[in-house]
């Protein structure tokens, strides 16, 4: 059976996820001198429907350092755009199933990033796109972020938390919505982080205005994982309450699922979406708010960050910022993911 990396935050058991976290940290300590050749002659095809800095550069750098080959295919130019049957356009698109069959006969894995506009902002449509790739691929498919999950980011996040806080059991994490001048941000990061954090035993407070609730399936799964690991999960609609006594604060913006279209061809209710954002311009992390957390608490963000909106410059550039250590761990998390899928023996 082919092992994919589509929604491991949702589907991987808590013990298996913690084992992978430990393996990723160990692999990082051996990088690069003792990991050279781990993916020698392995080829991965990368398809980015969305812009990318950290994901693209860290995957390509890591794969090259491990001895593999990265081939980036632009779905908007240079190849026919892979599409599902209901979105096919003659001589413009090519069915996802056909693309997956062909590429998986050439290389060792496919990696895809797709969310938002390329899927018409229909919640779950981008994830279904990745699932269609996986159904027809003979090699692993890696989710580099979709509209539901960002498992590569989440693994880097918990690696950073482990390095900064040590044992994570009982540590308090605030995952908070934050204001941005743009609503065009999926819920993938907070959803994957929430699931990953409770699997490690962290006590999580999810803070957001009432109109920015996460996917009920994700919330239900998080509660189940928390029960298994002894973690706690609570929701608050008060930012200060969320930050209070936290060991780490992860505050970023995400869109409201309430105002996204439910079917292809429908449009985002942009007026309602913007109104929901503008009502909560005060949801910004600054130095005063960080003082509500425990001494030496850290601030995290997946980047790119909207400075002066989601968070103040003083926090991003200050001693409480773990943002750039977190970004550096994208390389190591993804190295571990690629090794886990293509050469698991080298993680031991």
From TrEMBL:
Pfam families: OTCace (PF00185), OTCace_N (PF02729). Keywords: Transferase. The keyword Manganese does not apply. Residues 12-163 form the Aspartate/ornithine carbamoyltransferase carbamoyl-P binding domain. Residues 189-340 form the Aspartate/ornithine carbamoyltransferase Asp/Orn-binding domain. GO terms for molecular function: amino acid binding; ornithine carbamoyltransferase activity. GO terms for biological process: citrulline biosynthetic process; L-arginine biosynthetic process via ornithine. SUPFAM superfamilies: Aspartate/ornithine carbamoyltransferase (SSF53671). InterPro entries: Asp/Orn_carbamoyltranf_P-bd, Asp/Orn_carbamoylTrfase, Asp/Orn_carbamoylTrfase_sf, Asp_carbamoyltransf_Asp/Orn-bd. Reversibly catalyzes the transfer of the carbamoyl group from carbamoyl phosphate (CP) to the N(epsilon) atom of ornithine (ORN) to produce L-citrulline. Belongs to the aspartate/ornithine carbamoyltransferase superfamily. This is Aspartate/ornithine carbamoyltransferase, Asp/Orn-binding region.
């Amino acid at each position: 059976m082919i092992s994919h990396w589509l929604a491991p935050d949702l589907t991987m058991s808590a013990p298996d996820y913690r084992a992978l976290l430990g393996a990723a940290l160990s692999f990082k300590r051996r990088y690069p001198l003792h990991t050279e050749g781990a993916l020698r002659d392995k080829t991965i095809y990368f398809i980015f429907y969305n812009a990318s800095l950290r994901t693209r550069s860290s995957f390509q750098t890591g794969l090259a350092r491990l001895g593999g080959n990265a081939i980036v295919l632009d779905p908007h130019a240079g190849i026919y755009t892979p599409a599902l049957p209901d979105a096919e356009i003659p001589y413009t698109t090519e069915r996802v199933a056909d693309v997956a069959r062909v590429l998986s006969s050439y290389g060792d894995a496919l990696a895809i990033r797709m969310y938002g506009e390329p899927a018409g902002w229909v919640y779950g449509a981008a994830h279904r796109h990745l699932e269609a790739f996986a159904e027809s691929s003979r090699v692993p498919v890696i989710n580099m972020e979709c509209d539901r999950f960002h498992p590569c980011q989440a693994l880097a996040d918990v690696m950073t938390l482990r390095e900064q806080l040590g044992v994570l059991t009982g540590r308090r994490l605030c995952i908070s919505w934050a204001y941005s001048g743009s609503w065009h941000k999926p819920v993938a990061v907070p959803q994957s982080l929430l699931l990953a954090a409770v699997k490690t035993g962290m006590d999580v407070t999810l803070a957001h205005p009432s109109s920015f609730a996460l996917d009920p399936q994700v919330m239900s799964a998080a509660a189940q994982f928390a029960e298994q690991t002894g973690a706690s999960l609570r929701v608050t609609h008060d930012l200060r309450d969320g930050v209070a006594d936290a060991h780490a604060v992860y505050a970023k913006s995400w869109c409201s699922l309430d105002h996204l279209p439910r079917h292809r061809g429908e449009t985002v209710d942009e007026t309602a979406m913007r109104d929901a954002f503008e009502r909560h311009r005060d949801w910004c992390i600054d130095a005063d708010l960080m003082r509500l957390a425990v001494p030496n608490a850290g601030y995290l963000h997946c980047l790119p960050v909207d400075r002066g909106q989601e968070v103040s410059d003083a926090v991003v550039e200050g001693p409480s910022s773990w943002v750039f250590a977190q970004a550096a761990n994208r390389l190591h998390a993804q190295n571990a993911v690629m090794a886990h899928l293509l050469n698991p023996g080298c993680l031991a």
